[in-house]
Amino acid sequence: EPYRRQRQMCIRDSTYIVRDRRHLGNGSLTIDAVAMSDGDGLVVRYKAKDIPAGTKILWIYGGSQQSEIRT
Fold first, then answer.
1. Kind and range of the H or E element at 6?
2. In 10 A of CB 36, how many CB atoms?
3. Are 47 and 29 spatial neighbours (Cβ–Cβ below 8 Å)?
4. Is the full-model pTM beyond 0.70?
5. CB–CB of 13/27 below 8 Å?
6. Which of these, 71, 53, 64, 54, lies nearest to 3 by C-alpha position?
7. How far apart are CA 4 and CA 24, in angstroms?
8. What is the mean pLDDT of each run of 10 residues along the chain (71 residues)?
9. Residue 18: per-residue pLDDT
10. What pLDDT is stored for residue 3 in this prediction?
């Protein structure tokens, strides 16, 4: 199926480092995201470093399908 082949070619393993003094102080979050190799899906791992005590992490993830939106 062409969409699946295109998705597999476009999505790669990614690492993001988030720094935000307002919410994380002098700390950071390292986020690793890896696309599933055998189907649709995503594996996410995070590591918090030197963030303020009591900081809460909220994850929200939304997926989408290839479709046309008409307005």
1. helix 2-10
2. 11
3. yes
4. no
5. no
6. 64
7. 37
8. 48 82 93 80 89 89 67 64
9. 92
10. 47
